[in-house]
Specification:
Elements lengths: L12 H21 L8 E5 L5 H9 L4 E4 L2 H11 L6 E4 L8 H7 L2 E5 L2 H14 L3 E7 L15 H8 L5 E8 L11 H18 L5 E3 L6 H6 L4 E4 L1 H4 L6
Parallel strand pairs: 1-2, 1-8, 2-3, 3-4, 4-5, 5-6, 6-7
Helix pairs in contact: 4-5
């Protein structure tokens, strides 16, 4: 994003504030174009590779939802951020089923459920924790082999398998469409996810209110197509270190 200052080592609260103001302005314009209220849309600050100080700076600027890609990375950071009691921690990266127990302990929501096996393990782990864990189903859009997610043809079956799991609360769908330099080139993917969600709601007879789609470079189009959550990393924190 033009004018964005890089943050790669320690938190720069002033830069985060400037970036966040731009993100909120972009959100408001997109919501207005779509005839929506911006308050309907939650920005999830994707804090992977950024230090705990950057997360804290964003929190003090009003951000309450944060996304991490790796269980181990968040486990290390969480020690320094345990006092942020009203923050919501999302696991947005691919989760191996053998890490389900730790994920259920550390996160408020797992946004990347893509198999019945993983759902059942998360349910059992949440039961042990004495909690009801919010989850999203990650849908594979675009056919990229490198991306995770359930195939659209298998989405109804996975949904039906999750619904009876009493310690999971299915909230909606998430997707990571193919990257495109022109956000208009992925509009059809955002629309497809919304249509799949609407079909599922009719099928199961209950609402799935969350559509988590859209990132720093394309979230305006996602909002125009119905996103209720957007995942913004570099747009808030600056340029990410090489992984």
């Amino acid at each position: 994003m033009a004018g964005m200052t890089s943050i790669t080592g320690t938190a720069d609260a002033a830069t985060i504030a400037e970036n966040l103001a731009r993100v909120r302005e972009r959100m408001a314009r997109a919501a207005e174009r779509a005839g929506r209220r911006v308050e309907e849309i939650t920005p999830i600050a994707v804090s992977k590779t950024f230090p705990a100080e950057a997360v804290r700076a964003a929190y003090h600027l009003g951000v309450r939802d944060f996304g991490e890609n790796r269980v181990q990375e968040w486990e290390a950071k969480s020690v320094a951020l345990g006092d942020l009691r009203d923050a919501t921690w999302h696991l947005i990266g691919h989760l191996q089923s053998n890490k389900a127990r730790k994920a259920a302990h550390l996160f408020h929501r797992v946004d990347s459920v893509d198999s019945v096996e993983l759902a059942r393990k998360l349910d059992a782990a949440a039961r042990e924790e004495g909690k009801r864990l919010g989850v999203l189903i990650e849908v594979h859009l675009g056919g990229e082999e490198s991306k995770s997610g359930v195939a659209t043809a298998e989405l109804p079956a996975l949904t039906e398998a999750i619904l009876p799991l009493s310690n999971l609360e299915l909230r909606g769908l998430m997707a990571v469409p193919p990257y495109a330099g022109n956000p208009e080139d992925v509009r059809s993917h955002f629309r497809q996810l919304r249509d799949r969600r609407d079909d599922l709601q009719r099928r199961i007879g209950r609402e799935l209110p969350v559509l988590s789609v859209g990132m720093s470079h394309d979230f305006e189009v996602a909002i125009e197509e119905g996103a209720t959550e957007i995942r913004v990393g570099t747009g808030i924190f600056g340029t990410r270190k090489n992984l």
